[in-house]
Specification:
Number of strands: 4
Radius of gyration: 16 Å
Structural class: mainly beta
Distance between the termini: 59 Å
Helix content: under 10%
Strand content: 25-35%
Number of helices: 1
Order of helices and strands: EEHEE
Strand order of the largest sheet: 2-1-3-4
């Protein structure tokens, strides 16, 4: 039997803002179809953002920041952001959807 592992089938981002709210992803799905995928974008095109969002649901919060961009800097508005990762499971076991909802603190004492 071939030794395989689950692979990312799709990444969906809902309500994500970055570059000081200059770029907004309202609702976008990136289909990888369980294949190796090349992200070929210009500098500042969002490659790091995509990788940071894709890994966020699976790493401890202290590893979500990059050198130049704290994870919390994406969440400036009151509307939540949804990060969803669909996996195609190994050995033909189907699919599973994982994800998280993130929003800035709603603590009134900050205002």
């Amino acid at each position: 039997m071939e030794n395989t592992m689950s692979k990312i089938n799709a990444l969906r981002l809902i309500n994500l803002n970055y570059n000081n709210d200059a770029i907004r992803i309202s609702d976008e799905t990136f289909y990888m179809n369980g294949q190796s995928t090349l992200l070929s974008l210009r500098n500042g095109g969002g490659k790091t953002v995509l990788v940071q969002m894709m890994s966020a649901p699976f790493v401890h919060k202290r590893y979500r920041d990059t050198k130049d961009r704290p994870f919390e800097s994406y969440f400036t508005g009151s509307k939540p952001t949804f990060i969803l990762v669909e996996w195609v499971l190994d050995q033909g076991a189907g699919y599973v959807l994982t994800g998280m909802m993130v929003r800035r603190s709603q603590d009134d004492s900050e205002d």
